[in-house]
Amino acid sequence: MADRSTFGDFKSKALKNPDVKAAYDEAAPAFAMKRNMIAIRTAAGKTQEQMAELLGTKKSNISRLESVNSEVSPRLATVEEYARVLGYRVKVEFEPAP
User: Fold this and answer.
1) For residue 1, what pLDDT is reported?
2) Which of 23-27, 35-39, 54-58, 80-84 has the lowest mean pLDDT?
3) DSSP letter (8 states) at residue 12
4) Spatial distance between the Cα atoms of 24 and 41, rounded to a whole number of angstroms
């Protein structure tokens, strides 16, 4: 049977390319935020439909807000309201660039 590469192998190889690594590092904070948003929503037992109801919007807007592939960058106020209805607050930190 042929040896199959894993996603981890692919990622490791891709990140050796400096251009790919720079793009990955640049996108990492947005990906982390969206993963955290999904995590707190699911921990609260809420669906995207329920979040839309709580926020007075459509499910498609919640889907876009949580999507790592979305071209749209959410407003801070939107992220804060998302967190608030789930019992969280947003904390923004700054750190020196590498």
Assistant:
1) 53
2) 23-27
3) H
4) 25
Q: Where are the alpha helices (DSSP H) in 44-92?
A: 48-55, 59-66, 76-85
* pLDDT per position as a tens digit, 1-36: 556 888 888 888 888 988 888 887 888 888 999 999
Q: Within its chain, how far is the Cα of 13 from the centroid?
A: 23
The kind and range of the H/E element at 37 are helix 18-43
From the list 26, 74, 82, the residue with the least C-alpha distance to 53 is 82
Q: Hey, is 46 helix, strand or coil? A: coil
- Residue 3 neighbours by CB distance under 10 Å: 5
Coil/strand/helix, residue 93: coil
Q: Is 53 exposed, middle or buried (0-12, 13-18, 19+ CB in 10 A)?
A: middle
User: How far, in Å, are 11, 22, 26, 90 from residue 97 at the CA level?
Assistant: 23, 12, 10, 21
